[in-house]
Amino acid sequence: MRRKRVKQLFKRFLRDKRAITPVLSHLLLTVVAVAVMSLATSATFVITTNLRQTMGERVVVEDVWFNSAAGTLDVYLRNVGKADIQVSGVYVNHVGASFNGAFHLEVYKQGWLRIAYSGVSGESYYIDIVTKRGTHIADYYKAS
Amino acid sequence: MRTITRLLRREKRGISTVIVVMLSLVLIVMIVGNVVLWSYQMNEVDLERSQEALTITNVTRTEPAGISIDIKNTGSVSLHIVAVWVTNSTLHQRYSANVFMNAGESIAYNRTDITVPQGVFLAKVVTERGNIAVFSED
After folding, report:
1. CA nearest to A34 within chain B
2. B6 close contact with A: CB closer than 8 A
3. Residue B39 is nearest to which of A55, A69, A78, comparing CB atoms?
4. Are A44 and B27 inside 8 Å of each other by CB?
5. Which end of chain A is more exposed for a tag (fewer CB within 10 A), N or C?
6. Which runs of consecutive H residues, i.e. helices, occur in A16-67?
7. Based on the domain organization, do B80 and B42 belong to the same domain?
8. Is B103 helix (H, G, I), strand (E, B) or coil?
9. Which residue of B41, B92, B95, B136 is the best one to mutate when testing the A interface, meaning the one whose CB has the most A CBs within 10 A?
10. How many whole angstroms separate alpha carbon B138 and alpha carbon B133?
11. Please, which residues have CB within 8 angstroms of residue A100's CB and are 6 or more apart in sequence?
12. Model pLDDT for residues A63-79, shown as the tens digit of each residue
């Protein structure tokens, strides 16, 4: 008896097509809204993380050595900022110079950046080191 | 007041606009707050670095080997020396250090493991915040 009653109710539910469209449209709208909001939140996270890392870059040049024996210009860098850095380009007197591969420095780490460049003793050079995020570490150094 | 509440309850138009504006505001506040907070932290770092100052008043060779560096903290904040450099035209050697100095304090920093080159050389001390003091010994 009870089974019959359930069957009847189910049949009536299947037959009744009214108000299905509003339910579907609301459901779709909710899905779209949630998707867009998630996208916006992710974008916000990515943008702020990038901004924070760019603002947190601080690099100190501890030493510059015009190493005539090796024919290189060695720069000792230390990362004193709050983000890892990667050197993407080096310019000596505004001309690009090659250096020892992918130079990556973690926070509070240091190391020699060896630039393929021979300086003349007594001459001044403008050395510009550029990180991947666009920070410039630039100054004049005199070869000794 | 009751009438206004009743009207607001009955009137459903413009609700989605309000929700969108509120969500957008939340996002904007998140971005701006994050950036401002980080900027403030980095400003603190830069301010502390600018307040830090140190000088090397004298450098002497010690017998039988080593070096003695007289350092004075002339800044208003305490500092942490992390490295000592001894350089000349043919040698640039870095030695790790771990010395803390209060504001206004003077110390004689002795190291027997540092080899001092003959002739003209340059001694440098580097702090954790990235400031450097230099002394030229003829």
Report:
1. B23
2. no
3. A55
4. yes
5. N
6. 20-55
7. no
8. coil
9. B92
10. 17
11. A112, A113, A114
12. 999 988 888 999 999 99
- The residue length of chain B stands at 138
Helix, strand, or coil here: A14? helix
Does this complex have an ipTM over 0.85?
no
- Shortest CB distance from B27 goes to which of A40, A60, A144? A40
- Residue A133 one-letter amino acid: R
Q: Is B52 exposed, middle or buried (0-12, 13-18, 19+ CB in 10 A)?
A: buried
Question: Do B65 and B124 belong to one domain?
Answer: yes
Q: Indicate if A46 and A62 belong to the same structural domain.
A: no
State whether B123 and B104 are in the same domain.
yes
A11: containing domain: 2-54
What whole-number distance in Å separates Cα of residue A24 and Cα of residue A55?
A: 46
Identify the bridge partners of residue B125 per DSSP, sorted by sequence position. Answer: B84, B133
Residue B84's domain comprises 53-137
Q: Is A102 left (phi over 0), alpha (psi -120 to 50) or beta?
A: beta
Dump pLDDT digits (tens) for B59-116: 998 888 889 999 999 999 999 999 999 998 888 999 999 999 999 999 999 999 988 8
